[in-house]
Specification:
The chain is of the alpha/beta class. Helices cover 32% and strands 18% of the residues. The N and C termini lie far apart (47 Å). The structure holds adenosine-5'-diphosphate and magnesium ion.
């Protein structure tokens, strides 16, 4: 059972101004996002609001943004303009352990660990994440840092992983999840990751966002159509 049960929104507190992040159409008007399973995926086109929501959740959880927060980079510390001011998290029980992982800023995080010194490497596979390949470093983080009961928020974890390593990642996630120790909220474009059994998938391509089934996702359908007959698929694409 998930620890974080629900993300609810209080739009009443939002001034009429329609600026970012309050103008995101997948989110605007959403009352609640129930987290029914240990694994929840956010899918949707680039720019549909997935990262903005993940960041708001993790800030609300109090997770370190040392991995590189877009708020810090682009918005400064203007708290009025951040989404976490309108969201409420419902926990049972409250869990404080966890991690926010952004593929985009992974190397900021790796550099931060290097600053802390080699004694922290034991938590991350025994050597600097900067001395491992991108994919290796990702998996080291997944395999070594994710332990204990916690909420793990991941933004496009597949971006450095080969298909085989995405499967390894699924296996690691499964082990943590089945022991009842971990909950995951993951933004992804990967048709492999979202196949995870009993996961809830929310599509940010809808206004407001809604739950979708694996089979109806474009990720599944397009990948399947493509792999059924790549030659034919491309011929149609190029002639269209
Ligand atoms: N700091 C920002 N200031 C203004 N607009 C932003 C900022 N960050 C993201 N946006 C806009 O908000 C929308 C959602 O972005 P994002 O959450 O990154 O989408 P996704 O992660 O789904 O690709 C996009 O239209 C993006 O251009
Ligand atoms: Mg994003």
């Amino acid at each position: 059972m998930p620890f974080l049960k629900e993300i609810s929104f209080n739009w009443g507190s939002v001034p009429k101004s329609k600026r970012f992040p309050f103008n995101i159409s997948s989110l605007r008007g959403v009352q609640s996002i129930p987290l029914k399973e240990n694994v929840t995926f956010f899918i949707g086109e680039n720019g549909s609001g997935k990262s903005t929501l993940l960041e708001a959740i993790s800030t609300k959880c109090g997770f370190s943004n040392r991995g590189g927060s877009r708020n810090n980079l682009l918005l400064g510390s203007d708290e009025e303009s951040t989404l976490e001011t309108v969201i409420k998290l419902s926990w049972l029980p409250k869990v404080t352990n966890g991690f926010f992982f952004r593929a985009e800023t992974f190397f900021n995080f790796a550099g931060y660990l290097d600053e802390l010194g080699p004694e922290v490497y034991k938590y991350y596979g025994g050597k600097s994440l900067n001395k491992q390949s991108h994919g290796e470093a990702f998996l080291s983080l997944f395999a070594h840092r994710f332990n204990g009961r916690g909420l793990y928020i991941l933004d496009e974890p597949e971006s450095a992983l080969s298909p085989q390593r995405q499967l390894v990642f699924l296996r690691i996630m499964r082990d943590l999840e089945q022991k009842g120790k971990a909950q995951f909220i993951i933004a992804t474009h990967s048709p492999i990751l979202i196949a995870y059994p009993n996961a809830t998938i929310y599509s940010f391509d809808e206004s407001p966002l809604r739950e979708v089934h694996y089979w109806e996702t474009e990720h599944y359908q397009t990948t399947k159509n493509f792999l059924n007959d790549p030659e034919k698929f491309l011929k149609r694409l190029f002639e269209g």
